User: What shape does this take?
Amino acid sequence: MQTSKSFQLDDFIAGWIGGASSVVVGHPLDTVKTRLQAGKGYKNTLHCVLTIYRKETVSGFFKGMSFPLASVTVYNSVVFGFFSNTQRLISKYRYGDGRHPCGMLDLTVASMLTGLMSVGLGAPVDLVKIRLQMQTQTVLAENLHLAGNVSSGTNIPLRSVNIPSQRLYRGPIHCISSILQTEGVQGLYRGAGAMILRDVPGYTLYFIPYTIFCDLLKSDTKSSPHPCSIWLAGGLAGSISWVTATPADVVKSRMQADAQLQRKYKGILHCIIHSYKTEGIQVFFRGASVNAIRGFPMSATMFLTYELSLQFFRSL
Assistant: This one.
């Protein structure tokens, strides 16, 4: 599994396994979070959950999961592999030994670099996932240019025409090809700027709290953390990271759900200003409770599976 003392492949494989398990655990609440942030007609989290269940049954919560399951596993593999190997490179450069424990500054640098790197791979994954998750949302009449085709005597409210059978994308591959055809390669990276604002501080508040909690929960400084400690530390770190990242996540979700045919936002700043003017400051905290709840089991599963897989590979 190891190619050198400073670069190791087992981190990538363990990250892949951890990513797969976290997607299965977290996707239902991720769907709820996306609908709350970028959709319309939901009063609160419970109302959103009940609406999805009534209209789409249990399968509605797993809409768009096939693509994340295939891609987020690779994404998490790269994130965890990059983070761990970056730590070793920093330790080798600063202390002359890749196995030297990283200080808080080292961890911060490694976390921020990981967040920056993650956007290149994660932005298209997130965009496709969100476009698929948002397919059952109300289609605004003005976006479909229906105003010129509806007779003046109709009683249909033009701003809330609902077309349940309207499905823009047949699946993830069709979604990617459609985006490339209509928006070009840059279309896959719509919302990437907001994702940088979310992930650079987000990963810092992900890996550092995890390390701190693991150290606090260890019986002594030399022992490895217990699986229960890893699970708890990972869950707490995930909740902290996702709650603090919610404002940037709202902006990212709205920009990524904003397809070209019904383009609403010109850029990040316009999205922030428009959202604030129309919905108030509270809009930037929409889905925060879902993020806090969802972040715990997802990250707890992610870190526990990652650490146990790593221990298994290194015992071979």
About this structure: The chain has nine helices and no strands. The radius of gyration is 21 Å. Residues 98 and 276 are 47 Å apart (CA to CA).
